């Protein structure tokens, strides 16, 4: 310290930096200690402590007092009135003793707990040191490993620290974590001892209590539970503990004080600025909405427009914290929400949230800061920001095109950060189920199913009828256990009918338990059968045996049972429709119960129907009950024996095809387990057959063919359309792609997938399930055959790139859901085929893809796109192999036609666009360049020489099979799709 005449200086001895300067004043030196602060202007009014209590989501009174005192919140009076919502929500037992374990750094110990609220699961991760909470919503507990993996990776990257200890209960959902991360210490609590994980249990209670209080106070529908839970977690992370020596979890973790002045009361009325989305200037610039939470990856508020179910995320919002729209008498009769009321009243919102949920995103749970401070309010201070405002980019009105869509989709998934924009409106509009944060995610899935839109706008999917839409979605209301079903009258009645049918068929006899004999268990399966319009047809209860416990060679031997080939179905339908034959559909009731068992099988008595006089007895099965491994074979043997007795003979080339010729009339039966198609040249003969089968089996005559194996059959002037629209809609809903942006082609041009592309996909089971469903759709959709075949080559180890390709197929189906395979009538049957190959099209092993399309008249009846087993040395060899594969299939079709007594006027023609392959098939002379080709492929030459087949050249531009070997441009693809007989169902 140095003293001068007019002032003194305080300097640092080492750096000589001046620290303080003081001037004399009345004999003393006056030191100015005013800190340099960024100037801010506040304009507003003081509110009561009750309002702050509501804004913070109903925390304890002690917490509110601490906030008002320590943070200098503008408040009129500190007195807090009794909060009815808190009393309704926070009534609880006495707390357990506090834990004595102490953490010394973030992520040193992380608590986790999985909870179900009756609608869906959610998992919370709590940092023991800061008590910061992350919450994620799940459809099933199997998603815990995937969520934790992403959470661990991103939180460790953000905090530059590693998770050392994870403490959970003994749930099986946490066991894969130990195998995946062996370096992680996994502490498991004792069975039925939640006190050992008290931090997680108490935090769960805290979340539920504050959420219920917010729901009760604002009468928010229970369908919005995840929105409220997410917002409450957001608030809990900003609430300081009651003890004066600690601060909020947010401040402990990020070393900065959160901005409390941006908080608003959940469920209150709000008015977001939406002028950029108006069609003309005379439309209102805002809509009355409900404030449902805070956007995590955007600096704004989430505002729900109730009538449309649309959610606006905006920074320009005016709030009225005295009005709560959900408290209207027309919506709630009292302050206690009812699940039945909210489900009925808010069905549109529930539908959208079920149809297009957002995926859980771990990164959006790591907050970069509070919402912007410039949101305007009617009852709280207006804050003029002292820094540039950041917001999401302004939406563009231009829609995305199909070209380069895969690349743009990838960009969309990566680019989720906010960008500074000063000249554009800072607002985004999403559907009520499409949140940009993981805490507000309504996802029932863990994969990145995001409906794309170039303008970042996700529009609400509107459905004209609630029940009709439910017909296209999986029915999750069916009970899964006997105890659940036994509480409902119509399921009790369904089980009684099933038992009655079992006794009527003399399915078993009760015997004493055998000594040293295996006894098979049984269970009930419940399914709600619906009509095509979605209304309930009947409630079906099925008693099935636990066949997975059977032992081969003990209680079963042979199990194989044939089913009819899709090609045979299309071939027979094409012939019957062209000849104007009657086509009928049959369904066998309890088909397997008609099968006779030849093995000795014992089964436990059915749950709920144990014989009171012989409770310890077991069932000695006489008939093949559902679930047994040999049941399909036993039923097929019974049915085929009955048909053979009626004069039918089984086809040598398709065992599920039965044919009878009598008095110049033909009758055909197609069998797929218990679903049967009957057609023939004589309507009286078909009727007689059905009557005979009804005397032998309990069957239902479903009338003219209209729905078979998930395939709808529509008759119109153009022909017969085979459509899988219902199945496609169901798949889109199950994969959360119902609101996806459609594309015009199922595969990008010249797209070449490799097993080395992208990162490993996080859910291979999901990939296999979706690709398997797509393979079934190819029964009536040859236009997606090649991309589905390509994606199916990576079932063992799919990557993110492969999943993007699968989603493109789904987006294509979304835009062509009304399309199907059209069968037209013809005068004379002409059999011809188109064959093609892409030489060395696979970048991994340089193998080629063989493809063919076989037509009977104008109708496509068989097609294939398949990877060749060996590497061809030339394009001629690749095309020659394709010719051989098509020749084998067309010869098989010829044999079927011969059995049906359908003559061909001329030999079938194979059209090939490779001159070398055409010469090679027609010229039997030996060639040195083809001596390595397998001998069995040369059978095509023999057929050509014997004039059983003809091979002709066709130009590449006229080659229809070209669409089954590669991705094409839009115009080329649409042209080939028409030639593949894929047409849209005419509107009625």
UniProtKB/TrEMBL annotation:
It comes from the Eukaryota. Pfam families: gag_pre-integrs, RVT_2, SH3_retrovirus. Residues 356-457 are annotated as: Disordered. GO terms for biological process: DNA integration. Residues 361-374, 391-407, 420-448 have a biased composition (Low complexity). Residues 91-257 form the Integrase catalytic domain. One of its GO terms (molecular function) is nucleic acid binding. InterPro entries: DNA/RNA_pol_sf (IPR043502), GAG-pre-integrase_dom (IPR025724), Integrase_cat-core (IPR001584), RNaseH-like_sf (IPR012337), RNaseH_sf (IPR036397), RVT_2 (IPR013103), SH3_retrovirus (IPR057670). This is Gag/pol. It comes from Rhynchospora pubera. The lineage of its organism: Eukaryota, Viridiplantae, Streptophyta, Embryophyta, Tracheophyta.
């Amino acid at each position: 310290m140095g003293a001068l005449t007019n002032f003194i200086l305080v300097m640092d001895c080492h750096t000589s930096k001046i620290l303080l300067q003081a001037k004399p004043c009345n004999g003393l030196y006056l030191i100015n200690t005013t800190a340099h602060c960024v100037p801010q202007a506040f304009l507003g009014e003081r509110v009561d402590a009750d309002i702050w209590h509501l804004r913070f989501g109903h925390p304890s009174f002690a917490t509110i007092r601490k906030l008002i005192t320590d943070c200098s919140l503008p408040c009129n009076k500190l007195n807090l009135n009794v909060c009815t919502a808190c009393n309704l929500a926070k009534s609880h037992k006495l707390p357990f003793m506090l834990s004595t374990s102490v953490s010394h750094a973030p992520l040193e110990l992380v608590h986790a707990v999985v909870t179900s609220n009756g609608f869906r699961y959610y998992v919370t991760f709590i940092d023991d040191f800061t008590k910061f909470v992350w919450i994620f919503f799940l459809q099933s507990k199997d998603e815990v490993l995937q969520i934790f993996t992403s959470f661990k990776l991103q939180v460790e990257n953000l905090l530059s620290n590693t998770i050392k200890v994870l403490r959970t209960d003994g749930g099986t959902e946490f066991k894969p974590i130990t195998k995946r991360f062996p370096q992680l210490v996994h502490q498991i609590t004792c069975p039925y001892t939640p006190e050992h994980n008290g931090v997680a249990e108490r935090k769960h209670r805290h979340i539920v209590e504050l959420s219920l209080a917010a729901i009760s106070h604002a009468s928010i529908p229970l369908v919005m539970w995840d929105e409220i839970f997410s917002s409450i977690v957001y608030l809990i992370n900003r609430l300081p503990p009651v003890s004066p020596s600690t601060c909020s979890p947010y401040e402990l973790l990020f070393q900065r004080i959160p901005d409390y002045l941006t908080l608003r009361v959940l469920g209150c009325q709000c008015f977001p600025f939406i002028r950029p989305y108006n069609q003309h200037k005379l439309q209102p610039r805002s809509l009355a909405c409900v404030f449902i939470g805070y956007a995590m990856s955007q600096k704004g508020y989430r505002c729900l427009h109730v009538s449309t179910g649309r959610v606006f995320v905006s920074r320009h919002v005016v709030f009225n914290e005295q009005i709560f729209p959900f408290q209207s008498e027309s919506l709630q009769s009292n302050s206690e929400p009812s699940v039945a009321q909210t489900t009925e009243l808010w069905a549109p919102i529930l539908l959208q949230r079920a149809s297009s949920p957002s995926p859980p995103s771990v990164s959006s749970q790591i907050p970069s800061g509070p919402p912007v401070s410039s949101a305007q309010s009617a009852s709280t201070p207006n804050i003029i920001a002292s820094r540039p405002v950041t917001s999401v980019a302004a939406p563009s009105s231009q829609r995305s095109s199909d070209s380069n869509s895969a690349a743009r989709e990838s960009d969309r998934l990566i680019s989720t950060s906010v960008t500074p924009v000063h000249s554009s409106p800072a607002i985004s509009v999403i559907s009520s189920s499409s949140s940009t944060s993981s805490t507000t995610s309504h996802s029932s899935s863990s994969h990145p199913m995001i409906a794309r839109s170039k303008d970042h706008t996700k529009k609400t999917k509107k459905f004209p009828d609630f029940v009709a839409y439910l017909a296209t979605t999986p029915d999750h209301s069916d009970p899964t256990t006997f105890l659940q079903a036994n509480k409902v009258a119509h399921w009790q009645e369904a089980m009684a009918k099933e038992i009655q049918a079992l006794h009527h068929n003399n399915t078993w006899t009760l015997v004493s338990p055998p000594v040293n004999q295996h006894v098979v268990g049984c269970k009930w399966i419940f399914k709600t059968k619906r009509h095509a319009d979605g209304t309930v047809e009947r409630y079906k209860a099925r008693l099935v045996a636990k066949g997975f416990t059977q032992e081969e060679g003990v209680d079963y031997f042979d199990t194989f049972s044939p089913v009819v080939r899709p090609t045979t179905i299309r071939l027979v339908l094409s012939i019957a429709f062209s000849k104007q034959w009657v086509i009928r559909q049959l369904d066998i009731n309890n088909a397997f119960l008609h099968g006779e068992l030849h093995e000795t099988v014992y089964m436990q008595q059915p749950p709920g129907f144990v014989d009171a006089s012989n409770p310890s007895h077991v069932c000695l099965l006489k008939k093949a009950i559902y679930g047994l491994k040999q049941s399909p074979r036993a039923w097929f043997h019974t049915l085929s024996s009955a048909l053979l007795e009626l004069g039918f003979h089984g086809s040598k080339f398709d065992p599920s095809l039965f044919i009878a010729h009598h008095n110049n009339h033909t009758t055909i039966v197609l069998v797929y387990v218990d679903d049967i198609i009957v057609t023939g040249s004589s309507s009286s003969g078909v009727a007689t057959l059905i009557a005979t089968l009804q005397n032998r089996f309990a069957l239902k005559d479903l009338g003219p063919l209209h729905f078979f194996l998930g395939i709808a059959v529509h008759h119109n002037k153009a022909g017969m359309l085979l459509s899988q629209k219902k199945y496609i809609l169901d798949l889109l809903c199950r994969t959360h792609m119902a609101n996806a942006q459609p594309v015009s082609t199922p595969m990008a041009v010249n797209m070449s997938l490799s097993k080395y592309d992208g990162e490993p996909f996080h859910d291979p089971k999901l990939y296999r399930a979706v690709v398997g469903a797509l393979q079934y759709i190819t029964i009536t959709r040859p236009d997606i055959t090649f991309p589905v075949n390509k994606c199916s080559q990576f079932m063992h180890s799919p990557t993110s790139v492969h999943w993007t390709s699968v989603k493109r197929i789904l987006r294509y189906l979304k835009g062509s859901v009304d399309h199907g395979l059209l069968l037209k009538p013809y005068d004379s049957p002409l059999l011809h085929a188109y064959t093609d190959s892409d030489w060395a099209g696979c970048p991994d092993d340089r193998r080629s893809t063989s493809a063919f399309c076989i037509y009977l008249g104008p109708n496509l009846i068989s097609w294939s796109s398949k990877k060749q087993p060996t590497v061809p040395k030339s394009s001629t060899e690749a095309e020659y192999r394709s010719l051989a594969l098509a020749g084998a299939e067309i010869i098989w079709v010829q044999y079927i036609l011969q059995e049906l007594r359908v003559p061909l006027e001329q030999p079938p023609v194979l059209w090939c666009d490779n001159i070398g392959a055409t010469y090679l098939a027609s010229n039997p002379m030996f060639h040195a360049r083809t001596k390595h080709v397998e001998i069995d492929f040369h059978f095509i030459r023999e057929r050509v020489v014997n004039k059983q087949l003809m091979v002709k050249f066709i130009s590449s531009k006229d080659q229809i099979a070209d669409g089954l070997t590669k991705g094409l441009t839009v115009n080329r693809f649409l042209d080939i799709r028409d030639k593949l007989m894929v047409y849209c169902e005419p509107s009625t």
